[in-house]
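Late entry, evening session. Most of the bench is empty. Finally got around to the prediction I had been postponing all week. Sequence below, unchanged from the version circulated by S.P.
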Amino acid sequence: MGLDISKITPTKAPFYGIIPGNATIPLGTITLPITIGTRENFQIEYIKFEVENFKASYHAILRKLALARFMAVPHYVYLLIKMPGPKDVLSLRGDLKKSYDCHHETIEYASTGRMLDTA
């Protein structure tokens, strides 16, 4: 992503949920401005991300706290998130094929054991 490594705040708190039953220690955390919407209708929030030191299918996973900051309502069946914008409702749509491919890539990568480095 081209992040300035000096902006990462170190942490020792484990991160759960990447591999069921296992935890990893992130490199640290970083807070970044996130813009969602179009040029005419957008919202900006500062979201804290955990920076991991392993390959994964997803670039970022919005957790409940991030969704709450955006006042977003996820509709998992439709791969859709809706949230208020300054002019109208903002809608983000997912791609079922990409989600399926990412899920299987993560399972394959997790099964190699390379993600289990918690040092």
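Two things to note before I forget:
DSSP finds two helices and seven strands in the chain.
Residues 77 and 100 are 13 Å apart (CA to CA).
Will write this up properly tomorrow.
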